[in-house]
Design goal:
Layout: H1 7-13, H2 19-28, H3 33-36, H4 39-49, E1 58-64, E2 70-78, H5 83-93, E3 96-105, H6 110-116, E4 140-149, H7 157-175, H8 179-196, E5 208-213, E6 221-228, H9 233-243, E7 247-255, E8 259-267, H10 277-281
Antiparallel strand pairs: 1-2, 2-4, 3-4, 3-7, 5-6, 6-8, 7-8
Helix pairs in contact: 1-4, 2-6, 5-7, 5-8, 5-9
Length: about 280
Amino acid sequence: MKKSFDQTELEKLSPQIDPAVLKDFLDRMDPDYFLEFSTRTVAEHVTLANTLTMEEPCTLLVQPANDANRYRLTIVAYDYFAEFATICGLLSAYGFDIREALVFTYHDDPVSASKTLRHMRAPKWPIRRSRQQPGLFKRKVVDVFQVQLLPGTTFNAAMEQELSQDLSHMICLLESRKLQEVRNYVNRKLAETLGQRKTATSALVHPVEIFFNNARSTRDTVVDIRGTDSPAFLYAFTNALAMRGLYFSKAVIDGDGIRVRNRFFVRDRHGKKIVSAQEQQE
């Protein structure tokens, strides 16, 4: 069910948020984001975005679910190329099976996003004339994962801190354009995890159905994936697309541990749709 977003309620829930951070988030976030999350959850995400710095470009919120070994992981971060694949790889390396996910990034055109949200009013509180923080206007991403620990895997407070540090470190490397170093680290950590679980490499590869659609979105090519779930499936696929220069602007992940039904909104390295049949076949 689509959520009803209320800016008045958001203002009440976010009195301590830097108004510049809030305005940047509301003006530039993908409009579909506000249809998926409640106002209270949006306030939670904006609060996380308010903590981002160039030294700490990522924040992680871990919320245990009602079912044993299930968690809701919320990651708010500055947005970089290949970041989504990196996050998926790290979560798999920590023993998480990604069952569902919603991923939203900033809209490229702040004016267009503002028109979509034109019903929103300016904040009532006075604008503080604080010094502009570095990174304030960098693109941001909100990733919300529903995950389940794989059998025989544990996750505690120490591992949560380690995961948070790994995420920030990898994103700092992406900011420095050290993509190969990031991939090497994630692949090594993932190989260690799969090795401990004695997961055969062949078990990671299953036939998948891939459908491209350029009519669903005016800005992106929509890629629908259907296939059999397996350890690190999402990382393997998103990393393969990233290696071909594709950028993820939005994603909807849906799986049950057996089958996966994923939808990605992607663009090429020039910000264009994937139009030619040759590019789609690659």
